[in-house]
Amino acid sequence: EIVLTQSPGTLSLSPGERATLSCRASQSVSSSYLAWYQQKPGQAPRLLIYVASSRATGVPDRFSGSGSGTDFTLSISRLEPEDFAVYYCQQYGSSPLTFGGGTKVEIK
Amino acid sequence: EVQLVESGGGLVQPGRSLRLSCAASGFTFDDYAMHWVRQAPGKGLEWVSTISWNSGSIGYADSVKGRFTISRDTAKNSLYLQMNSLRPEDTALYYCAKGNTYSSSSHFDYWGQGTLVTVSS
């Protein structure tokens, strides 16, 4: 099983700042099958990024994904008020599919 | 517009059974893998089970293997999760999610709003 470790657990930033979230895998993620999801309180997760760096439909271009192998990053160039949420990475290259523990981006 | 609507959750005693349903619309159901993902109160996301487009490939998390069964009905555009021998640690919000391809190796491009399962005596 591929274990995904997200860091930091909580990121305290101000609107307008840049956010950098990390997702590290215990072994290489096949074909860069790594996705990122955003979840706000009381809502279902929303797909942001797939195959490590492709933005999902309707996702603003301030969100970007990068990485390969075992190290992946989600960047938010300038935080908007609606971006404060919990972010999860997920690998879907091998079974079982696994999620990271999440990074909460909170308002400083 | 893609819609996924879960139902069937509720309060159930340990050891009992429950069947979750997910009604899908807005896309060609037969063409995509489907998934169940759960989230315990205040916790992160946990993948539960996956079924490929033609039910030829099915997978389960170790935590539910042998107790849960995933299935789909193309005539009804519906996904199901039969949950037997329920345990308190199965308490969670259960989401139905659409895969982006026919394959089990797919990310989840649409999610339902979830149905809450509470296992308690």
Indicate the multimeric state.
heterodimer
Question: How confident overall, as mean pLDDT of chain B?
Answer: 96
Note the run of SSEs of chain B as H and E: EEEEEEEEEEE
Rg of chain A from C-alpha positions?
13 Å
Protein chain pair with the most extensive contact, residues per chain? A-B, 24 and 22 residues
The major sheet of chain A is characterized as: 7 strands, mixed
So what's the overall shape of chain A? Answer: globular
Question: Judging from the principal axes of the Cα atoms, what is the shape of chain B?
Answer: globular
Largest sheet of chain B: 7 strands, mixed
Total helices of chain B: the number is: 0
Quote the beta fraction of chain A: over 45%
> Can you write the helix and strand succession of chain A as a string?
EEEEEEEEEEE
- Pairing-aware structural class of the strands and helices of chain A? mainly beta
| Straight-line N-to-C gap of chain A | 35 Å
Walk me through the structure.
- Chain A is built from no helices and 11 strands.
- Chain A has strands spanning 4-7, 10-13, 19-25, 34-39, 46-50, 54-55, 63-68, 71-76, 86-91, 98-99, 103-107.
- The relative contact order of chain A is 0.34.
- With 121 residues, chain B is an all-beta fold.
- In chain B, 0% of the residues lie in helices and 50% in strands.
- Chain B has strands at residues 3-7, 10-12, 18-25, 34-39, 45-51, 58-60, 68-73, 78-83, 92-99, 108-111, 115-119.
- In chain B, strands 2, 4, 5, 6, 9, 10 and 11 form a 7-stranded mixed β-sheet that branches.
- Chain B is globular and about 40 Å long.
- The model of chain B has no long low-confidence stretch (mean pLDDT 96).
- Chain A binds chain B through residues 33, 35, 37, 39, 44-47, 50-51, 56, 88, 90, 92-102, and chain B through 35, 44-47, 50, 59, 61-62, 95, 100, 104-114.
